[in-house]
Amino acid sequence: MLQTWTSAQVRAAEEPLLALGVPLMERAAFALHVRSTAVLRELRGTVAGARVVVLAGPGNNGGDALHAGALLARRGVEVHAVLTGSRVHEEGLAALRRAGGQVLPADGSVDEGAALAAGADLVLDGLLGIGSDGAGLRGTAGDLVRALLDRGRPYVVAVDVPSGLGVDDGRRDGTVLDADLTVAFGALKPGLLLPPGTHAAGRVELVDLGLDLPGAPAVVRLEPGDVADLWPVPTRDEHKYTRGVLGVVAGSRAYPGAAVLTTSAAVRAGVGMVRYLGDVGDVVVAAHPEVVVGHGRVQAWVFGPGVSPDDAGQRRRIGYAFEHVLERGEAAVVDAGALELLPARVGPHAVLTPHAGELARVLVQRGEDVDRAGVEADPLRWARRAHELTGATVLLKGPVTVVAGAHGAAYAQADAPAWLATAGAGDVLAGLLGALLAGSVDAVHEDPTLAAALAATAALVHGRAAHRANPGGPISAQAVADALPGTIAELLGR
Ligand SMILES: NC(=O)C1=CN([C@@H]2O[C@H](COP(=O)(O)OP(=O)(O)OC[C@H]3O[C@@H](n4cnc5c(N)ncnc54)[C@H](O)[C@@H]3O)[C@@H](O)[C@H]2O)[C@@H](O)CC1
Ligand SMILES: Nc1ncnc2c1ncn2[C@@H]1O[C@H](COP(=O)(O)OP(=O)(O)O)[C@@H](O)[C@H]1O
Ligand SMILES: [K+]
């Protein structure tokens, strides 16, 4: 898994090492220069004779970049530093000058700096690091980057983080310099994984500085190798009831497909049994003879796919279930039409699966003033807010799926191709996650943060099944469901 730590956690980890005189900046700058030479070799075959521009802000991030620039200059690279203010890392600047680098001071014209950078083989972005206030680049740094972007962005290596990015939350509220490669020091920061900022980072490489990072990671991204630890694999003695029964209240005469897709994903994900409740049991059984129609014991539920506001029958079933089943300890996926029926307070074993528009409605229902765009601008904040207000685990769907759960658990999954943005894909995710919860409900009660880990697992498997369904091309939701057994087998075999 990829783990991230906030600026505050990184600073706390650096403090004791700096007090001992450990040369963290030297280590960071050396690694940055090594990565930069690799990029230059890739881009132009050789390092000597390349043109590199260092954009140097006022702090240590600029210091890293200037020291790396000095090392590059010693290898025959033509290095220019463009300063953005009177404050600059003096040692770094002196090192660059000693190595033969040129310096364009901040009182030079912004256009001159931008022209220099636009013509470089590689730009080292040392404008702002973890000292950024997250509001985007302001002042000369902002003017410089806007002027550079007007001319066309060269190859950019972000030093630690892309400058202007919300380091801890992934917001990009103002000017940000997008990178092709981010060389992160000591730890990945949450903004490198969280939308919308994650897209500014390009490829991310971590440089180990030997930090002893405090506490739990802020935001995690599960990787394929993590799935086997989280998947409820049946043991030799199990039978269908111990493996978990999933109840599905989904679909209607108007939207029978949602019932088929949800049950299809649940059956394919390997649950002990699927029970269907609703008016289109005949359609569901025709598609999946394994499904049992009618009441009985279940461990987890999926409520809501394809349930419309005028569907009195399904709404009554969901309302009744909300009054009884969550208190009995049964887990639930609450999707689409069930979201607005959610009781005031539930536990983390209820997992909401809204997209940004639906999450905005859940929040507005509870007195928050936010719309879809607001959720998309700061998804983890709003997913966390919904968790605080409802008690539920929240999986917020999108190009990067964000999960917020109990005790601060947070995940950001970027596993899916954009082809997955197709009708019915959400129904498949709901069925898949329902199956996972049905197989793990006891463990979820022992460790409430597990619901968030399982939600992230479902997002990962869903995304990989989409790739597998038709690599590089269009996919239907049913094809994603059909790809689940093979995808899961592959992940469990890793
Ligand atoms: N602390 C350490 O021990 C280490 C830090 N390192 C580097 O140091 C960086 C952090 O250095 P600093 O704490 O000096 O912080 P920065 O280099 O990010 O600079 C912060 C300063 O920038 C200005 N600023 C903040 N927001 C701004 C905005 N929106 N627009 C324009 N100016 C703004 C403020 O004056 C602030 O003091 C890390 O990201 C990393 O690159 C590395 O050298 C490794 C060791
Ligand atoms: N641009 C994108 N790239 C990758 N995945 C996406 C993108 N947009 C949406 N998705 C995923 O596609 C699915 C769409 O679900 P949803 O919005 O509920 O659609 P529906 O209700 O039609 O099933 C979600 O899993 C979401 O994370
Ligand atoms: K930076």
From TrEMBL:
Q: Which cofactor(s) are needed, names only?
A: Mg(2+); K(+)
Reactions that this protein is recorded to catalyse: (6S)-NADPHX + ADP = AMP + phosphate + NADPH + H(+); (6R)-NADPHX = (6S)-NADPHX; (6S)-NADHX + ADP = AMP + phosphate + NADH + H(+); (6R)-NADHX = (6S)-NADHX
Which E.C. number(s) belong to this protein? 4.2.1.136, 5.1.99.6
InterPro entries named among the record's database cross-references: Carbohydrate_kinase_pred_CS (IPR017953), CARKD (IPR000631), Nnr (IPR030677), Ribokinase-like (IPR029056), YjeF_N_dom (IPR004443), YjeF_N_dom_sf (IPR036652)
Q: What is this protein called?
A: Bifunctional NAD(P)H-hydrate repair enzyme
Residues the record lists as binding AMP: 397-401, 426
The entry marks the following residues as binding K(+), namely 61, 125, 163
Q: Which gene encodes it?
A: nnrE
Q: Which CDD domains match?
A: YXKO-related (cd01171)
Q: Fill in the subunit field for this protein.
A: Homotetramer.
Q: For the YjeF N-terminal domain, which residue ranges apply? A: 10-217
Species, as recorded: Cellulomonas terrae
* Residue ranges annotated for the YjeF C-terminal domain, each copy included: 223-491
Q: What does this protein do?
A: Bifunctional enzyme that catalyzes the epimerization of the S- and R-forms of NAD(P)HX and the dehydration of the S-form of NAD(P)HX at the expense of ADP, which is converted to AMP. This allows the repair of both epimers of NAD(P)HX, a damaged form of NAD(P)H that is a result of enzymatic or heat-dependent hydration. Catalyzes the epimerization of the S- and R-forms of NAD(P)HX, a damaged form of NAD(P)H that is a result of enzymatic or heat-dependent hydration. This is a prerequisite for the S-specific NAD(P)H-hydrate dehydratase to allow the repair of both epimers of NAD(P)HX.
Q: In which residues is (6S)-NADPHX bound?
A: 60-64, 129-135, 160, 258, 306, 355, 427
Q: How is the cofactor bound?
A: Binds 1 potassium ion per subunit.
List the signal peptide residues: none
